[in-house]
Design a protein that fits this description.
The protein has 12 helices and no strands. It is mainly alpha-helical and 272 residues long. Helix 8 crosses helix 10 and helix 9 runs antiparallel to helix 10.
């Protein structure tokens, strides 16, 4: 039975596409929207995806529809600009992902058995994606890993690809040894005062740290988001403690703020 209060998804998509077309109309549209192109909108697309992840991380379910709508707008915006150039339109985007989902799930939409282990499903998935890359003339192991991904996420994807062909450390222990090696090289670069070498060695250390996360089955982006949230929360306690005295962080010093930080840390531990 159809829920009478449920919106018509098709009608709302059509409405959104029409609104975007009006915003881009050269004669009557919004000057800002008209001036945009793929390159200028791309950063907003990435930002909106992160805001979706943020809402999910905070379990802000009441905010999630709006954040997903903002992300959907990015798809519609790109599709509208492409349509204006006779490249493709929103229907082509929807058809592309529908076709891909059907192709990648032969055990659901085809004749293959659904009676598979999770490990076998992953192997089948990778074989299907390898076929897709071959059709795109992506012959290299690392071909097709998007450059626009967050750097830590892209590092994991690159390492996973390399690991599938045997280029990987056997265990986390070897990765930890490599971290010690890269840390020593970073110290050496710091002492040399060569900014370019320092950045390169720091990048190498981050890359190996991402590899350790992969071996430990930790999402490095998620782990760093968690650390960011912890830092924000505890520093907020430091600010609140100072504010209760009519002061701000710039009126304090490192020793006092470090003491307040440790108090906030202990309070969190006690509440767990």
């Amino acid at each position: 039975m159809t829920d009478p209060d449920r919106r018509d998804a098709g009608a709302e998509i059509t409405r959104l596409i029409d609104i975007m077309a009006q915003l881009r109309d050269p004669a009557s549209g919004c000057p800002w929207d008209i001036e945009q192109d793929f390159a200028s909108i791309a950063p907003y697309t990435i930002e909106e995806a992160h805001e979706v992840a943020d809402a999910i991380g905070r379990r802000a379910w009441d905010e999630l529809p709006g954040e997903l709508g903002d992300l959907l707008l990015q798809v519609v915006f790109h599709a509208q600009m492409a349509d204006e150039r006779d490249m493709f339109d929103f229907a082509d985007c929807a058809a592309a992902i529908s076709d891909k989902l059907v192709f990648r799930h032969p055990h659901v939409f085809g004749n293959e058995s659904r009676d598979k282990s999770a490990e076998q499903q992953v192997k089948d998935w990778e074989a299907i994606k390898a076929t897709e890359r071959a059709h795109k003339a992506e012959d290299g192991t690392l071909d097709g890993v998007a450059m626009g991904l967050p750097a830590l996420t892209r590092a994991i994807k690159l390492q996973n690809r390399a690991a599938r062909v045997g280029f990987d450390w056997p265990s986390a222990a070897e990765v930890l040894d490599k971290i010690a090696e890269e840390t020593a090289e970073l110290v050496e670069a710091r002492d040399s005062l060569d900014a370019d070498a320092l950045e390169e060695e720091f990048g190498d250390l981050l890359f190996v740290m991402a590899n350790l996360a992969r071996h430990l089955k930790i999402d490095p982006e998620g782990a760093l988001r968690r650390a960011n949230a912890k830092f924000t929360r505890r520093f907020g306690v430091v600010e609140a403690s100072l504010a209760a005295q009519g002061r701000r962080p710039e009126d304090s010093d490192l020793a006092e703020m470090d003491r307040l930080w440790n108090q906030a840390k202990l309070a969190e531990k006690a509440a767990e």
